[in-house]
Amino acid sequence: MSRRLWTQEDNLVLIDLFPNSYTRTVGEKLARSYSSVVKQAHKLGLKKTPEFIERMLKETSAHLPKSGIKTRFKKGDPPYYKGRKIPPEIKDKCRHTYFPKGNIPHNSANVGDIVSIKGGYLKIKIAEPNQWQLLHRHVWQQKNGLIPEGYRIWFKDKDTTNCDLSNLELITDKEAMDRNRITDLPPELQQVIKLKNKLNKKIKENGKK
User: Fold this and answer.
1) Nearest to 15, CA basis, from 26, 25, 4, 5
2) Which is higher by pLDDT, 92 or 124?
3) Burial letters for 174-190: b for 16+ Cβ neighbours within 10 Å, e otherwise?
């Protein structure tokens, strides 16, 4: 599959929106993947503003609902870039970065920057020098404290980029293994096993009272 070229118009939209918008929202407007937007933003030297990072973390920790509004450009809309010219310094950068390769260098990121990593997860830079933490663990611990040994964070909707607190669940390592194992079984059998696990958990909780 060929990789779609980043046009001057695409870059203008990215320059305007990336610093103060959610990356996924920018991706929807440009009809591009999250990782594609992150890589191109890095190539252009774009960063999230401190104000946006603070707001984003507050919203995530406060468990605000997602808007879910479709924001992609529609046919007939006036061009976002109409009557505008790309800045010369950005144009020079774009000329050599239409097909960026490789990962974002960790040592070039600021505290609060969020990047995608191998395996489909996100991580956030929490301190200097180069101190990173998986975003879903960071979000959980900001609200609930340290994760106990033998436990892990589970994504309820199986989307490892959805780090909203409402999508995160604390489970044991064994529970995670069991859940991963049953995904290969028929759907009706999966439901039976899930109900059994819930029942066993409820029995244990009642036994401790």
Assistant:
1) 26
2) 124
3) ebeeebeebeeeeeeee
Q: What three-state secondary structure class fits 168? A: strand
Helix (H, G, I), strand (E, B) or coil at 171: strand
In whole angstroms, what is the distance from residue 79 CA to residue 6 CA? Answer: 16
Q: Residue 38 is part of which domain span?
A: 1-102
* pTM strictly above 0.90: no
Q: What does the block give as tokens for 201?
A: 């958990």
**Residue 57 burial (10 A CB sphere; 0-12, 13-18, 19+):** middle
CA distances in angstroms from 19 to 41, 46, 47, 56, 178, listed in the order given? 9, 7, 6, 12, 41
Position 79 in a domain:
yes
Give which of 160, 150, 201, 169 is closest to 193, Cα–Cα: 201
CA distances from 109 to 49, 90, 112, 127, 128 (A): 12, 19, 8, 10, 10
**Is 160 within the bounds of a domain?**
no
Rounded Cα distance between 136 and 34, Å, is: 17
CA 101 → CA 40, 104, 105, 131, 176, distances in Å?
10, 9, 11, 23, 34
CA 110 to centroid of chain Cα atoms: 17
- How many domains, in total, are found in the chain? 1
pLDDT tens, 43-95?
888 888 888 877 776 666 554 344 444 555 556 666 555 566 666 666 665 65
